[in-house]
Write a structure and sequence with these properties.
- The complex is a heterodimer.
- Chain A is mainly α.
- Chain A has 9 helices and 4 strands; from the N terminus they run ααββββααααααα.
- In chain A, the strands form 2 sheets. Chain A has a two-stranded antiparallel sheet with strand order 1-2. In chain A, strands 3-4 form a two-stranded antiparallel ribbon.
- In chain B, helix 2 crosses helix 3.
- In chain B, 9% of the residues are buried.
- The chains are: A mainly alpha, B mainly alpha.
- The interface between A and B is large, with 61 and 45 residues.
- Chain A: Its main location: membrane.
């Protein structure tokens, strides 16, 4: 990208934002109370409230449920296929690769002894994020993993699993005592306590931001590239825009896989660190 | 230049402000995420991960076990083959020995039978010779008696009145004995 292109992107971002009472890019990336099938129309979703708390069914909720249904369908089918025969057939082969990958390449090396207990959480998180990421790549759909509320919730789950796993394995006091490394000078202890306690929260915070930023950035860049055509008001720019958008899309396929892996891997790593503190 | 884009994006996010920004956490969505994820965790944990992981474990154990068993069976087969070969060699030796033994036995038997039959034949021949000798002697005696009788008869015919038959016979016998002694 040369500096001119950069300038154009920046301008387009600013323009689209200032125009039409808000940025259309953000409307696409963000949550909303309708399913967007433009130019074919929109499907508005119901508004729900409990005790004054807004729990409307939004675009991201719909796609999250879609991912949940898909996950349930796919993996119960896989489980059923194992009942018939231990030899995997058809799609079971495909999903088994991921399951064995999570077990042997993520959970086993990072958690070590007693990793089986955390496998259900890690597998669910991995496939939930993976399905969400890939659902977001389908036209007219929305990426619920690019919503900070979703990623923050997932990171909170990881946080709870990490702390509960650590406390269960080392005892309540043993766990918090084990957080501070051995051989720290006494005068450093107050600082270390603060640092380590902060560290507990920065880990899941980083998890949430990483997933959210990665899943959002790709989409924003694609929209920005497409918007170049309208900003410059020329068909001539479209081959460049579409070509680069396609390239970013290809990159996003990679990122979708990678972020599911990274979220699970880091969660597993933190669980391992909490459970086996001696390392 | 990436920084420029970054700041442009940030400014948009920031300028949204209020409750509708990209970085604002929507409580309702967080609620639905929690609910969905927990239900998913429960359902998949119970109906998918548990059976799948158990099946995978079982399969891995089965593979490990069958490999170990195959190794064991191979060892066993090797041992049995060696044993078979050894027993085969032993059997061959045994059969050779038996053949050798029976051959010797047959040879001995043959020799014995031949000897026995030879002896028997010899004995038969001897018996026959003795019988012949005996018969010859008997015939000779008969002849002697007949000749003596004939001679006595003839002599008595000739010397009818002169000689008493009994006395003459004794006389002739005496002579004959003397002749046979000579």
């Amino acid at each position: 990208m040369d500096s001119l292109a950069t300038q154009v992107i920046v301008d387009s971002l600013k323009n689209t934002h200032s125009e039409s009472g808000g940025s259309w890019i953000l409307h696409h990336v963000m949550d909303g109370n309708y399913l967007d099938f433009s130019p074919f129309g929109k499907i508005y979703l119901p508004h729900l409230e409990i005790f004054g708390f807004d729990i409307s069914i939004t675009r991201h909720v719909v796609f999250m449920w879609l991912a949940a249904i898909l996950l349930t369908y796919v993996f119960i089918k896989v489980a059923k296929s194992y009942q018939n025969s231990l030899i995997p057939k058809g799609s079971t082969n495909f999903w088994e690769v991921f399951i064995v990958f999570v077990r042997d390449e993520i959970a086993k090396p990072t958690i070590g002894k007693g990793y089986e207990r955390f496998l259900p959480y890690l597998l669910t998180a991995f496939f939930f994020i993976l399905f969400g990421n890939f659902l977001g790549l389908i036209p007219f759909s929305a990426t619920f993993t690019s919503n900070i509320a979703v990623t923050a919730t997932l990171a909170t789950m990881s946080f709870l699993v990490i702390q509960l796993g650590g406390i269960k394995n080392n005892g309540f006091f043993g766990y918090f005592k084990g957080l501070i490394p051995h051989g720290v000078p006494v005068f450093l202890l107050p600082i270390m306590v603060v640092v380590e306690l902060l560290g507990l929260f920065t880990k899941p915070f980083a998890l949430a931001i990483r997933l959210f930023a990665n899943m959002t950035a790709g989409h924003i860049v694609i929209y920005a590239l497409i918007s170049l055509i309208f900003v410059m008001q020329s068909y001539l720019i479209s081959p460049v825009s579409v070509g680069m958008a396609l390239f970013i899309y290809g990159l996003e396929v990679l990122v979708a896989l990678l972020q599911a892996y990274i979220f699970t891997m880091l969660s597993s790593l933190f669980i391992g660190m909490a459970v086996h503190q001696e390392h | 230049m990436i920084a420029k884009i970054y700041f442009a994006v940030i400014s948009i996010i920031a300028s949204e402000g209020g409750g509708a920004g990209l970085l604002s956490v929507d409580g309702g969505l967080a609620f639905w995420t929690t609910l969905t994820f927990l239900i998913l965790l429960f359902v998949l944990g119970k109906f998918a991960w548990k059976p799948i992981l158990t099946a995978l474990k079982h399969r891995e154990e089965a593979i490990k076990e069958s490999l170990a068993q195959a190794e064991l069976a191979k060892e066993e087969a090797k041992k049995i083959l060696a044993e078979n070969q050894a027993s085969l060699a032993k059997a061959e030796e045994e059969s050779k020995k038996i053949i050798e033994q029976s051959r010797t036995y047959a040879e001995n038997l043959k020799q014995q039978i031949i000897n026995e039959s030879k002896a028997q034949a010899q004995k038969l021949i001897e018996d026959a010779s003795a019988e012949i000798e005996r018969k010859k002697l008997a015939a000779f005696d008969e002849l002697k008696n007949q000749v003596a009788q004939i001679a006595v008869d003839a002599a008595s015919k000739i010397l009818k009145e002169n000689l008493d038959a009994e006395k003459n016979k004794q006389l002739v016998d005496k002579y004959i004995k003397e002749i046979s002694k000579n």
